[in-house]
Write a structure and sequence with these properties.
With about 190 residues, the chain is of the alpha+beta class. The chain is built from 2 helices and 12 strands, in the order αββαββββββββββ.
Amino acid sequence: MKRNFVWVGLGIVATVAMFPIDGTFAAARLLDRGLAIAQNLNQPKVELRLIAKQKLMRKDAHGKEQVAWNELTKDTIVQKGTILRFQVVAKNTGDRAAEKLVITQPVPKGTIYAIGTAIPSGAELSYSIDGGKTFSANPLVQMTLPDGRTEMQPAPPEAYSHVRWTYAKSIAPKKGLEMTYDVSVR
């Protein structure tokens, strides 16, 4: 009698697994979830931290101006024209190398990217001027010349919406990277 309940129970499980839910068989859905869990377990773990700093000019004891970078706090007030430096710190906290790491940072609203300030840090740099849809090492825009002709010219700083670092080399476990770029407050 006990065996019949086991077979009936397995039969119910098999039947439920064969009924489609939202057009997908339950068994396929369970398999997909199992694969996703296994893939997540095998992924390297990269921890990202964003630090924002404000550029301050100070005079030393001899009256010579020096640059200082103060980390922003929730109480920091910035004025138009203030230069901010964003620093992304990436650390591989997992036990596997992180392959083909891509870090994309938006240029915050109300700021203008300072062209040439992104530091490659061993990566290929690219930029977006369309809200992060496409990226290019040298974004171009079509400009109309005074005589009515058009030509492609480098995008102006205010057009930049994202900065991207693409790493070809793997990041070893417990190792980290730092990426920076500057913006000015509008």
